[in-house]
Amino acid sequence: MSLNGKKIILAITGSIAAYKTPQFVRLLVKSGAEVKVVITDAASAFVSPLALATVSKNPVLSSVSDGATWNNHVELGLWADALLIAPCSANTLGKLANGLCDNLLCAVYLSARCPVFIAPAMDEDMWKHPSTQLNIGKVKSYGNQIIPVGHGELASGLVGEGRMAEPEDMVSHLEDFFTNVPLPLNGLNALVTAGPTYEKLDPVRFIGNYSTGKMGIAISEALAAKGAIVNLVLGPTHLSTSHQNIKVIKVESAHEMYDASMRVFGEAHIAVLSAAVADYRPTLKETEKIKKKENGLTLELTKTEDILANLGKIKAHWQTLVGFALETTNELENAREKLIRKNADMIVLNSLKDEGAGFGHDTNKISLITNDGGIKDLPLQSKKDAANAIVGQIIEMRYAKEIA
Ligand code: CTP
């Protein structure tokens, strides 16, 4: 299954060839893809949205809002590994060529950052019209790929050029595309730590923190999307990931996280330590529940192993080590000091001062501090975008060191 795990948006416009799309969706799903369908009003005259929802196992989206729900075209555009507009009518082609946006489909197209494939379908005269050919040239010049039209019987009864490519051929086209794309982290292993740690006090209590692991999971997914095989050492959290190239190793305490990280670091080309590891654990872990006393209770704490610092000590030249810093004062100075002290290649600096940044939020505001003295302040953005920026910087650093 060569489209295994690929997220594909099939965007269907008003052309008779739309009747072939449920079969096309089935073939995409059979090849391992996850498919979401976006459809124009004109297309739903040619094909049943219910049939498409059934075969894709996802709701079919047609407008920017469905009653009270807003269909986030930006999220959809970012979700996809590929957007395929098939069949693409002459009318939609004209809109794509000129940046018009009067429906969800066009909004998704304009928001998509993934490769876009366009499979035109129309009558021969429409296909050969200079305006259509001009529009084809324009959309190609934007970097979109055209899946060539076929020759054969057309809806008008004429025989000629303009048929939408056959669904089997479009699946092969996508399969070829994905197998031939060399990803920058193909063949590399990565280690990511994420989430909080829980340090047991007794059988029912622990010392923990508010981390959810969202940022670390996003980093694992960004690394995997660039071709890396990832070991994600994940502290206790309700979040997880099912990406096929990410192996989740669940741990609870700082010590378990340390053990798991040390075990897999030897084969990791890249290690990103985003976990909020407890710096201290209770010196004594009571086997029975601690009973309430008359007065206060003093706990004795012992330092945990510093995973980042320990990996920094054994790091080889081909390994890229990235740590996080959450600072409240002298942010830059402290982060730089941490970079040197822990022998990291980069520190991702989080500031708790920025609204929308930090534990549990969907957004983050970070600065990337590298061991060549560089500093990049990034704007407040989704954790997914922040993760992509971190991974982009790692790739850049590895190219610069010629260890990519
Ligand atoms: N870290 C770690 N193991 C620990 C503590 C921290 O691997 N026991 C890692 C974190 O995952 C993060 C980085 O170290 O990547 C920074 O952690 P932080 O707690 O901010 O730094 P400390 O060095 O502990 O310094 P301080 O708490 O004084 O800021």
Q: Descriptors for this entry?
A:
404 residues; alpha/beta; Rossmann fold; 8-stranded mixed sheet; 5-stranded parallel sheet; elongated; binds cytidine-5'-triphosphate
Taking pLDDT < 50 over at least 5 consecutive residues as the criterion, the unreliable ranges are: none
Instruction: List the ions, cofactors and other small molecules found in this model.
Output: cytidine-5'-triphosphate
Net shape: elongated
Which percent range fits the helix content? 25-40%
Question: How is the main sheet built?
Answer: 8 strands, mixed
CATH T-level fold name of the largest domain: Rossmann fold
Oligomer: single chain
Order of neighbouring strands in the sheet with most strands: 14-13-10-15-18-19-21-22
Q: Give the C-alpha Rg.
A: 26 Å
Q: Please, could you describe this protein's structure?
A:
It is a single chain. With 404 residues, the protein is α/β, with parallel strands linked by helices. It has two domains: 7-178, Flavin prenyltransferase-like (Rossmann fold, 3-Layer(aba) Sandwich), CATH 3.40.50; 189-289 and 297-403, 3-Layer(aba) Sandwich (Rossmann fold). The protein has helices spanning 21-30, 49-56, 73-79, 90-98, 104-111, 124-128, 130-141, 167-180, 214-225, 254-265, 307-314, 331-341, 383-400; strands spanning 7-12, 34-39, 65-66, 69-70, 82-88, 116-120, 145-146, 150-153, 159-163, 189-194, 199-202, 205-207, 229-234, 246-250, 270-273, 280-282, 301-303, 320-327, 346-351, 363-364, 366-370, 375-377, 381-382. The protein has an eight-stranded mixed β-sheet, sandwiched between helices. A five-stranded parallel β-sheet has the order 2-1-5-6-7, with helices on both faces. Helix 1 (21-30) packs parallel to helix 8, helix 4 crosses helix 7 and helix 9 (214-225) packs across helix 13 (383-400). Bound molecules: cytidine-5'-triphosphate.
